[in-house]
Amino acid sequence: MEKLISIKNLKKYFKVPSGMLKAVDDISFDIYDGETLGLVGESGCGKSTCGRTILRLYEPTGGMVEFNGKNICNFGKKEMIEARKSMQMIFQDPYASLDPRMPVEDIVAEPLDVHNICKNKKERHEKVVELLKLVGLGEEHASRFPHEFSGGQRQRVGIARSLALNPKFIVCDEPISALDVSIQAQVVNLLKDLQKKLGLTYLFIAHDLSMVRYISDRVGVMYLGKIMEIAESDELYDNPIHPYTKALLSAIPIPDPNIQKERKRIILEGDVPSPINPKACCRLKDRCAYKIGICEKEEPIMQEVTDKHFVACHRASEFI
Q: CA-based Rg of the chain, rounded to a whole angstrom?
């Protein structure tokens, strides 16, 4: 597979009264054409900030984002407007991301209007209906307002809007976390079907570790602004190497009471440290049972420990 997106040393810092909040701190990874890369981690670890920075909804503090071989961080306003056609986002909250005063037809057609895609109202209406049918809604839904829909239907409207410009790459920012559990699988299956039909590439950000395994080809684990581990989905879930990944995956319940009884839950001691002015050391050192002297002094470098399995840990080779 070819690289569609290459993220190199990406940083996003926010100035706060007590210093610099390093939400995304010097991370690098690639996303290949047609794949789904899952991104998991605790709340506040920088997942959503990472997704928004890749799309330049937040301006990067440093580093580069190459899309189709071009560094979009250097793009001017006109170039970025053109690039937006190929890069879209599905937002977390379908209640907040849709304007309650606009009918669904205008919501879905907004990208078409911004980029002057349609020549007349008839063409615009036909395109909106086509998009609604693509996500499992009908023409009758076009004239309704967001409050007339369920949460799952609203998220389908959001997905339709993200598809309006035929993008290549979509950041799915926790698209199922605000939905009922019974609806979550429907939305994830819809995303998988659309990927096959339209050849889409996803960055899928989520908390639900089981759902991430189901939809993702590869998975990255994030902690306090850093990528700790990245590998193919089954490899990461079956053979986690980083102590943080092991702790995270040990929390997934298994629907077999006998196996679940035998499993040992790994509890990380202590609280998540502040991302404000972090020291140049391992971010997990205060909560890790395996820390040694070097963990206090040096930041671990991401290295390929086994085939296509990358880990940022000083003791990674010992845990294989």
A: 21
| Nearest of 2, 39, 55 to residue 170 by alpha carbon | 55
Q: What is the pLDDT of residues 61-86, one digit of tens each?
A: 999 999 998 999 999 999 999 999 99
Q: Which tokens in the block code for residue 137?
A: 């809604």
Helices (H) and strands (E) in the chain, counts: 11, 12
Q: What is d(CA 240, CA 242) in angstroms, rounded to the nearest whole number?
A: 6
Instruction: Report the pLDDT value the prediction gives residue 260, as an integer from 0 to 100.
Output: 60
DSSP symbols for 260-292: HHH----PPPSPPPPSBS--SS-TTGGG-TT--
The phi and psi torsions of 276 (rounded to 5 degrees) equal: -85, 125
Residues of the chain with pLDDT under 70: 254, 256, 258-263
Query: C-alpha 248: how far from its chain's center?
Result: 17
How many of the other CB atoms lie within 10 Å of CB of 73? 18
Predicted TM-score of the model (pTM): 0.92
pLDDT at position 256: 64
Run of H or E residues at 97: none
